[in-house]
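Table 4 source record.
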Amino acid sequence: MHHIRTAIALCHRNRFAVLFVSLVVTIGARPVLKMLSYTWNPMRFFLALILLVAIVSSARERDRSLPLLGVAFLILRLYEILVGHVPILHPSEAVWVIACTMVAANTFRQVLLPGVVDRERIFAAMDAYILSAIIFGVCYWVLNQAWPGSFGKSSAESFTQNDAIYFSFVTIATLGYGDIVPTSDPARGLVILEAVGAQLYLTILVARLVTLYEREKG
C-alpha cells in the first residue's frame, strides 16, 4: 500500500510529464498498431487513454466537471460499441473534445502562472500544443462526418480519424504537404483557426517563458 501511494504521489508531481508520454505514445504507436491490426482501430483506445491521463493530470479536487465528463465519455463510448450504430454524430467525440479542451486550457494556464521555469512547466507547454493538435484532428473528423467531402475525400468513411489527426499536425506545424486539403467553408475556417492559433500560442509561450526566466535570474 505504501508503494502504491508513493507511485501515485510521484505521478502527481510529474503529471505533465506523464501526460506528455501518453501523447507521444499515441502519436508514435498508433501507426504501428494500425499496421498490425486490420479490424481494430487503435485510435479510439488512445483517445480514451489520453482523456483519462489528462483528467488525472489537471483535475482539481473541487472541480467535478472533468471527472463527470470522463464518465459521460465512457458511457457514450460503451453505448456506441454495444449498439453498433450511432444516430447522432458520435456524441462521445463531442464530450471528448469538450473535456480535452478544458484540460488544454488548464494546462496552458499552468504555463502562464508565475514561478520557476522547471521541467514540469516545459512539459505542460508541450502538452497543450500536442493536445490541441489532436483536438483539432478529432474536430476535423467530426466535421467531415457532418459534411462529407469537406477534405476532398469521396465519402465520409474515406477520411478516417487517423487522416484527420495527421492533417491537423501538418496544419499546426505549417508543413502544407497538400495531400489532404480542406474544400468546404467550415473546414477552411477551422483550419485557419488552428493555424493562426498555433502561431499565437508559440508567440505568447516564448514571451512568457523568457519573462519568467529573466525574473528568475534577476
